[in-house]
Amino acid sequence: MSAEATNPDARPELRRRGRTRLDLRRLGRAALQGPTPRDRLPDAISHVAEAHRAHHPDADLSVLRRAYVLAESSHRGQMRKSGEPYITHPLAVTLILAELGAETTTLTASLLHDTVEDTEVTLDQVRAEFGDEVCFIVDGVTKLEKVDYGAAAEPETFRKMLVATGNDVRVMSIKLADRLHNMRTLGVMRPEKQVRIAMVTRDVLIPLAERLGVQALKSELEDLVFAILHPEEYEHTRALIAAHAGEQDPLPRVADSIRTVLREAGIQAEVLIRPRHFVSVHRIALKRGELRGSDFGRLLVLVGENADCYGVLGELHTCFTPVISEFKDFIAVPKFNLYQSLHTAVATSDGEVAEVIVRTRQMHRVAEAGVVALGNPYALPETGATADGREAEEERADPTRPGWLSRLLDWQQSAPDADTFWSSLRAELAQDREITVFRADGGGRLGLPAGATCIDAAYAQHGEAAHGCIGARVNGRLTSLASPLADGDTVQLLLSQDASSGPAPDWLDHARTPAARIAIGSWLRSHPDGGRPDPAAPRAPLSVVGARGGGGNAVVDLPDAPVRLAGCCTPVPPDSVAGFVVRGGAVTVHRIHCPAVAQMRALGRTSVAVHWRATADCRVTLVAESFGRPHLLADLTEAISREGVDIVSATVEPPTEQRVRHRYTLQLPDATLLPTLMRAMRDVPGVYDVSRA
């Protein structure tokens, strides 16, 4: 926007290869020559018209002429810091988008994107002249005034812009092109301001370009930021590239070999050499140390159909030696930013290793321009044609609400202030991969950043209701809430019915998404004494002990011998049991399938016949496994009491990973109550298993 100025001589080595550098001074003079006859386009936007017609041959350019006339007249007299007329900036931004294939509405809004912010033009005027769509996009990219928001103006502007992007992704397309032109022309700014703008570009705009799939803008932005924030590494990389330019490049020879192989196989394909940009060369140098000649570029193979991609792959892996570790299939499993390609690397007979990307021409267009290549994604004509007139081969992916954007729009509403939003936004955008997990109830899927845990899944699915989450099953197995999730996992989240339940303070250590962290932090601030005890703190087992009985209603065929029911298996009528004489002459009674029975027989213990009295009461020991939460012990003892069962003793072990183990010895008035009692204990929120000891 208006903050940066043009510097045509700044870092010429970063200019995009193949792009004709426009003479912005000449265009500026043309812009000041006054209105153009209505029967032709102004000379100043002829480059835009040419680029636009290359992608959209039937586009109506009259609306662009009207937008240019309004932009030029409203910006007339305004100058950039380097001396060019200000109209050169919206022209350059619009040309960037036109070269990416943006449709007419986007280009119209791009020409006008600074008018409401920097001139007397109002949104009502834009709406009256160009319609609601253009008005919405222009409003979305218009900055908030510092006089109204102070230091919060920048984060709140981004918040406003991202909310608008949720309704129309073209808002962010214009912002990215706007930032690219400003970064190209940043040389006249003070060094400290260059660094500040470059850091925001690195932390926010480049990740957004990646998520929207606009690789052409992302790559150039990365190089421009690299030059400002890491000048020494940039100069070293520039020297490496310059030195390579004077050496023999092995990639043309490998490309010729691949062309020959594909031609003989009858596959029509175009094989191109794609030089790596500066940051890519720098990363390869860090990864491999000494660079090979083939590391300065990659080979791109373009074909017509998806099936041809795999045909090319088969020929490459048959006629050359594949480097299996470098193979990735982003066609079968596209990236979350719409990117599709096959990636591989092959070694030739003379030992040269070349990385190869295989994609269709349509995939290539989307890989370079991302959502910009989708035209107008919000209205598909009834004829089935796309916005640029081509027939839609398949249902178009809607880029308006990808997983990351939906999450962002949800949690930003809970961000209490601009600082929290700004820091959370940077943390969200720092996650460069996504995973998909599935709900166990068949309710759909959840998109989460890589490294997300069950806590993040809980807040993504249930919002603030996740405060009462007490556990999770991942792929059918119980696990702690801190467990990280993997792509394709099935997650079942267990919620407490206790309204007073809340997150533990250590949840913040395991939450990865801003939505979860903001919600947890808000609850903990409003409940300063409501956090759970530190599970790492040592605690003695809690015991509630009553009068202990002996053999209950078990009768043994050994007169006057004391009888004990074994604590390891706690037999009750009508269990099949066995008795064994132990030290002191006492008889211990076990269930017949108890492992101790085999041990007793192996030790030669004397076996004694046992039968049950006719009385129905009995004693049993049950073990309850649960997730820790407040009032759990009280709820369990209340459930036991409601069944008319007496607690002889109870032991609660200290929590481990938020899991608690309870052991109860109970006196039942009737052995037939045991199944009902165990079901009642399992129904207590947080209890996931009850078994006999």
Strand content: 15-25%
Mean pLDDT: 80
Strand count, sense and barrel status of the largest sheet are: 6 strands, mixed
Our Rg estimate from Cα atoms comes to: 35 Å
Task: Characterize the structure shown.
This protein has 25 helices and 22 strands. Strands 1, 2, 3, 4, 5 and 6 form a six-stranded mixed beta sheet that branches. A hairpin with a 6-residue loop joins strand 20 (646-652) and strand 21 (659-668). The longest helix has 21 residues, at 191-211.
TL;DR?
With 693 residues, this protein is α+β, with helices and mostly antiparallel strands. Helix content is 41%, strand content 17%.
Architecture blueprint of SSEs:
Elements: H1 24-31, H2 46-55, H3 62-75, H4 88-100, H5 104-111, H6 115-118, H7 123-130, H8 132-141, H9 146-149, H10 153-167, H11 170-184, H12 191-211, H13 215-229, H14 231-245, H15 251-264, E1 270-275, H16 278-288, E2 297-303, H17 306-319, E3 321-322, E4 328-329, E5 342-347, E6 353-360, H18 361-369, H19 403-412, H20 418-430, E7 434-439, E8 445-449, H21 454-462, E9 469-474, E10 477-479, E11 490-495, H22 514-526, E12 542-545, E13 554-556, E14 563-565, E15 577-581, E16 587-591, H23 595-602, E17 607-608, E18 610-612, E19 618-627, H24 632-642, E20 646-652, E21 659-668, H25 674-682, E22 687-692
Parallel strand pairs: 2-6, 7-11, 14-16
Antiparallel strand pairs: 1-2, 3-5, 4-5, 5-6, 7-8, 9-10, 9-11, 12-20, 13-18, 15-16, 15-17, 19-21, 19-22, 20-21
Helix pairs in contact: 2-4, 3-5, 4-5, 4-11, 5-8, 7-8, 8-10, 8-11, 10-19, 11-12, 11-13, 12-13, 12-20, 13-14, 14-16, 19-22
